[in-house]
Amino acid sequence: MTFDISTITIPTDPGIYLMKDSDGKIIYIGKAKNLKNRVKSYFLKNQNYKTQKLVENIDFIEFVLTDNESEAFLLESNMIKKYRPRFNIELKDQQRYTYLRISDEKYPRLLVSRRTRDGTFLGKGKTFGPFTQGSSKLLTIGALRKSFQIRICKTLPKKVCLEYHLGNCEGPCEFKDAQERYAKHVDSLEQVLKGKNQTKIFTKKLEEEMHQAAKLEQFERAKDIRDTLIRLGSLQTKQKMEYIENSDEEYFGIGIESQTAVVMNFRMINGVIRDSDKFFFDLVGDNSFSNFLYQYYSTHKIPKQILVSELPENKSFLESLLSELSGLSVQIIKPTKGKKKDIINLILKNVLLIHQKGGDPGLVELKDILHLDEIPNIIECFDISNHGEDFAVGSMARFVGGKPDKSGYRKFKIKTVTGRDDFAMIGEIIKRRYYRLSEDNSKMPALIVIDGGKGQLSSAMKSLQSLGLKLPCISLAKENEEIFTPKNKKPIIISKLKPSLKILQHIRDETHRFGVAYNRTIRKNQIK
Fold it and tell me: Is residue 258 within 8 Å of residue 360, measured between CB atoms?
């Protein structure tokens, strides 16, 4: 049952919205300048299939307000990383970002924060991040500890250790004055971990304190502050160098097929292609090229120039966010001529090749996962719709190139089976369908999908064997989306994020819908 949007009050402020299913699990997170206008748009007619599937799964919507659109953009990105909703964009290397944690101890330590697969942080304390693989905050965690005199010992010793004698720790384990200062060191570290602007504010504050200490002739205090400033300056210099080194230009080409976007990129260093990658994401809700780029650069080094086949929406806004994140002046450019345009054209040729291979990236995945001899451009799916013993029909949906081919849909009145025997009914309609195709010398599908489990699959295989046909056939059990094949005892589980599973779910849902509609028509006619 579709969620009734009229039952909730939606604010008109900027912020993010969290769509949850009946189990309370977050399935989609989006942002908006005006939450009311954006959220209501999901419930309008003529949405694409994948957005419809999202809406069908919504049971509740929660809102988090922000002061402006920029804050909403950043909050959305961080929340997606934390909860990994299945309808949002998730890059395959999303695990490359890291969080840091200040532990919940009498004299806290600075640690890398570990997470479980569901995104829950391990350990007590305050968590900061995410920090990218190229972030100086991660790579110089040791320098941060030294800069703020943070202890590294797992258990507080009774006497000072080597770190004290090296000047990296003031020894709160032994000295009372160090114990009194420790909380201030931790507070200063927190300010720096909160972000670039906080670092600037903190640095300015330290400079003022240093000058004040010098005026009061507190030279020891002034020297300590000066040393801290030098260490902070070193961290900031390293951070800037990390972004500049090996990040000259990056190119992106995007192509859209069957409500799925394919993005391919080339990383260029000194004019030479050094690396390339491919990404797929569904066009659901706010999933867009702009969102993809921001998610991508939350885990990769940001170059000065990002060259694209088409300009993302909110280009200027995205440039300002990436500039703030990197400390560089970042430009997003669509080349119109010259060598840069040639590189974009080369990427688009590759994107076209990906589409031509299978019409849909999910079909290529299905070929590999199911070990098929060919890409399953033609898939036929079967289901039985029962309503009591007197009303049972069979239905078949046909997909070509990953898209519904409604002229190829078929419906079956059950002729040889009485009672509620789904297995025998599946066997009957499979036999009738492929006997007819064999007699007519018609093209056979590259894959047959049965809505059901092992029993339904076994019945389908017996019918195919009786016809002397060897066609790839699988079943898809709805409860846990398990895929059963004739040769394997254990089911295949495909990640819910993969386009291959989404194709199977789409054709299964279409077959079910078509069958239910036919069953309803028969019952209405019987009543009349």
Answer: yes
